[in-house]
Amino acid sequence: MQDLSKALIAEFIGTFGLIFFGGGAASMVTTGHAGLLDAALANGLAVAIAAFVFGDISGGLVNPAITLGAAVAGKLPPARIVPYIAAQIAGGIVAGLILGFIFAHDHSGTHMGPYGDLGATLINTKLTTLAGGFVLEMLGTFFLMSTVLHTAMSDRAGAVAPLAIGLIISISVMFFGGLTGASLNPARTIGPAVASGVYTHIWVYLLATPLGAMGAGLLYRVLRAAKGLPATEAASA
Fold first, then answer.
1. Low-confidence ranges of the chain (pLDDT < 50)
2. How many domains does the chain fold into?
3. CATH of the domain at 86
4. CA 148 → CA 78, 112, 137, 172, 219, distances in Å?
5. Contact partners, residue 130, CB within 8 Å, separation at least 6
6. What pLDDT does 105 receive?
7. DSSP letter at 79?
8. Does any domain span residue 233?
9. Residue 237 lies in a domain
């Protein structure tokens, strides 16, 4: 239980940092004081740092979708799914509320670009459709989960694994940040949404990202089975 408590604190802090810096940078994009590259670097680096700092405590997942994908892949004990997701969403919401305190502007929720108030992620319906946004978030999370599984969770990349994870997030923001905000993370969407009251298109992110992550987790198990490797190696952390 003590180890679980430490893991939950790590997931809370790691997710808080992601939404605070990533959502904050996205909010600066909305106000015209930063560009998409700034948001890409902020989100990618925040996740990489969380993985570096908290990897040995909780895995540094900081993402409910990745939590589900890790469980499907056999890398996370099922008993940790709900506590991890609760800690991650709580960290996202608290970070969103603090961003709301910091940014003194009207949270009208009328902006329909990739980022709304406080960095809330939205589907930019001027450039894509809801279906297009769904596919982008699902595929982006699929590749993020695949990167996590084949680097950090397979001990293949060592200390470089967090960097690889951060980079897949950064290139996702560079590609389709202007279309969906490139959330790839329910907590990244929920935190600013709760703080700003902007829930437009939230269902896209809550469905697409877990589907992408669980699909990657299932594929990982299939590939390992094809190689004659153990199907599951549930982490104890």
1. 234-237
2. 1
3. 1.20.1080.10
4. 18, 31, 16, 15, 13
5. 123, 201, 204
6. 61
7. G
8. no
9. no
Helix (H, G, I), strand (E, B) or coil at 115: strand
Tokens 């009328």 map to which residue?
110
Let me know if residue 41 belongs to a domain.
Answer: yes
> Residue 124's domain spans which residues?
2-226
Give the model's pLDDT for residue 234: 46
Specify whether the CB–CB gap between 116 and 194 falls below 8 A.
no
- Secondary structure E strands in the chain: none
pLDDT score for 116: 85
CA distance 68 to 77: 10
Output the CA–CA distances (angstroms, integers) from residue 88 to 126, 160, 186, 228, 235, in the order listed.
31, 24, 9, 34, 18
Which residue, among 216, 199, 144, 145, has the nearest Cα to 176 in the 3D structure?
144
Whether 14 contacts 91, CB under 8 Å: yes
118: left (phi over 0), alpha (psi -120 to 50) or beta: left
CA-wise closest residue to 143 among 182, 89, 189, 87: 182
Residue type, 203: W
